[in-house]
Predict the structure of beta-galactosidase.
Amino acid sequence: MMEDLSSSMGQRKILFSGSIHYPRSTPEMWPSLIAKAKEGGVDVIQTYVFWNLHEPRPGEYDFSGRNDVVGFVKEIQAQGLYVCLRIGPFIESEWTYGGFPFWLHDVPDIVYRSDNEPFKSLHAKLYLKNSEHDEIRGFICFARRSNNTITGKRDRPGIIIENEYQNVEAAFGDKGPPYVLWAAKMAVELQTGVPWVMCKQADAPDPVINTCNGMRCGETFGGPNSPTKPSLWTENWTSFYQVYGGEPYIRSAEDIAFHVTLFIAKKGSYINYYMFHAPLDEYGLIRQPKWGHLKDLHAAIKSCSTTILEGVQSNFSLGQLQQAYIFEEKGAGCAAFLVNNDQKNNATVEFRNITFELLPKSISILPDCENIIFNTAKVNLEGNEITRTSSQLFDDSDRWEVYTDVIPNFADTNLKSDTLLEHMNTTKDKSDYLWYTFSFQPNSSCTEPVLHVESLAHVASAFVNNKYSGSAHGSKDAKGPFTMEAPIVLNDEMNNISILSTMVGLPDSGAFLERRYAGLTRVEIRCAQQEVYNFTNNYEWGYQVGLSGENLNIYMREHLGNIEWNEVASATDQPLTWFKIEFDAPKGDDPVVLNLRTMGKGEAWVNGQSIGRYWLSFLTSRGQPSQTLYHIPRAFLNTSGNLLVLLEESGGDPLHISVDTVSRTGLQEHASRYHPPQQFYSVQGLLLDNLTV
């Protein structure tokens, strides 16, 4: 008999879950996202809790706006779904610093995620905090108070502590295993009354449940480490994160459905789509055929879930690449999964004296062991392509104003050091940018000078005597520092060399994050006569954290007057230029995007809200930018007079960008056109008829 996650709540269920992270959308979007997930057959919403957002400084808390995790959980509960909280504290999540607040870095003697007393003390304090403001300050309050509107038993099938620790555990030597035991013991002693989970931790201590993350857990998961634990898939990667300069990884609806079904056939009872922004796109629109195909799959599995949960499983071969998984209840139901692992060919098999034709690389679901109601490779919906409609083109130079940022010289800086400082420990995550500056007077023999810079940051840009000289950047796949070789022009007198080091977010994974180094590692001026001036050590440097406009907050309306803005014609091709313009919101309700197709690298703000960093000049192997369209949530917009501010690092052209709207065809037809036989449905268990979106 299959174990399942919900048995402790008095109900036995197979649960389908979708990851929707509250700070990655606006509170105004949450109800629609959750409703569409529910309509698609999802029972659970899974989310991380983001420590760096909620405690940006020690003892200072923020649970407002997009950080309102309490409001997010209440909305999930209001729509009748469960919530699975991933409280970390390390989350990775393709999130800066893995969700840790950077102030942890300055805690004396701390070693993250190890048997280290300073880290364990802060880790425990995070969960054990109990004060009059516990409702918004204590992350674990959701699980600890059992009868209020947040944590009634209906909304909490499980809590996940730590995240894929086994990937890095060996790096910590004898400090790794004790940390796992300590974290599990601390979690269990909180007595939340719900199961605790450690994902990708094969030796998760009892009663904590070990789970699988990946794309093919039906094939790769070794199973629970105890017969009393259920088989859970906490991250079914519906796609994969995309990096600047990288092509997108698109996973088909057929492939996702195949591996979900195989996991259920092998006694799986919980599958979480990470992220659910594959059936739904980044704007919250339904993406077909994924959404509809998975909705049909969920319905088909739920139609025979009682038999799957209560029946005895058996399996046997139907051919060289074919397999049958059967669940039978004594004197009651029978359900079967017929698997064809042949990638290219149909397979004809005989099962219980009935002949079936199985599509290539597919699984057929037979809720009565006789009739196929769903096949993972048979997609009965057409794709709904995204349509972009231009609303406003910002091609009128008279509407734009610009400000060119100040290049700091050595004499202008307050922070001095006789060595190269590490980038992250200097900026403290207050800015992506750190200026390294020095002064230098060459001797007359230095001709054809070249500035040689090696860096472990993401980008380096050089300015000599306030003039741009060149830049270079690394990539995700590159190992070690990247190199910039910039020919420069030097005066005979003193020269000011300013190098802007840029991080595009902080590292999010790996062991010993607190030791990670970023920033310049070597700086030289090399002359044609093989004369080399080395400034790496024992040379006085001046530093400035952040850009001038950034430090003056000129992306916010109330601070626009802190600097003097000029006409755009004089500075469109200058690096480190700020642009501003006002625009009206497009009419209607379609999602709004900023099309930055002619920009280079920088960041965009709308009404003071960042809508993201952009890097269109970093092209993929096909010669295209990784991302061009940037979502502007409707909640950020006023009807008119919206302020758009761009920080352009490398000389992009704002006169050909636009505000557009996006839509998808056929969204009025949410329901799939594929319907299994009615007798195999239990409408009560499908959550399909309760709402329209």
Summary: The first helix runs from residue 30 to 39. Confidence is low (pLDDT under 50) at residues 1-9, 135-156, 668-693. The longest strand covers residues 537-545.
